[in-house]
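Progress against Task 2.4 (sequence-to-structure conversion) is shown through the following example record, which the project officer requested during the mid-term review.
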Amino acid sequence: MRNAIVVFSKVPKLGKTKTRLTTEKGGIMTDEEALAFYEGCVLDVINVCTAAKSGDVWICYNQDGDSEYLESFLTRTADRAQIRGTFADKGGSFDDCIQYAADYVLKNGAADRIADSVMIVGGDIPSLQPEMLQGAYAKMAKLARSEAGLAVATKTAQSDVPIGAAIVEGACQEGGFSIIGFTCETPFDFHKVFYNMDGITALDMLVAKAKDKNIPLATVAMAPDVDIPIDLASMIPVLKALQLSANYDDSVMVPINTIEIMEKIGLESCTTPPQR
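Structure tokens generated for the chain above:
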């Protein structure tokens, strides 16, 4: 299968980026620090996606994002030439935006589709590793060839090789997910996944949709994002562990940009000592 990886991210903007980490919203960062932190995260995520060599890398950004700033920002990635292209979403709810990203690539299986499968990752998951994406694509390819996957395929795509239905996800905190991939033959959409009035978590809704349509589903390692201070406190030790383990495992990719910003700001995680 031809694969595509889409980094789903807002264009970094001062005062509009990771605001829940700022002091104005009860966090610990200035607007400038939150912007720098997010930029570090996005750079590291993009670099992992290109290093994984599991598919063409695309960037989907917010409709009102500054495309000129984005292009300037992307020159800071490890290899800009490895990014196939960028495109803006069409606005609306989060469901609408991420659905547009998937449709842009898969085109409902049409002959001019960009790829046969898409893997969408958030820009704020700095612990993401190439092996996570490689493993996700291996699992998706296996499911897409399976009897179960072929049985529920929409059979709308034009392809010399049969492609079955398959979903792969990597969970994050609070019942969400930061990695989601599926084939062009998968009868899945994001309607009410992130935006629903019933209090159903995104991951629960994803599982329910897969179960309802008998879509084979696989999971990969959790890829936590960073939205609020507790997420950041939990992430700092993880990044330090990656930094040390890379000395002994050359498959580990250190999120150097995020760590550099953390060290510049002087961020450390701590816990309350037990009461005696």
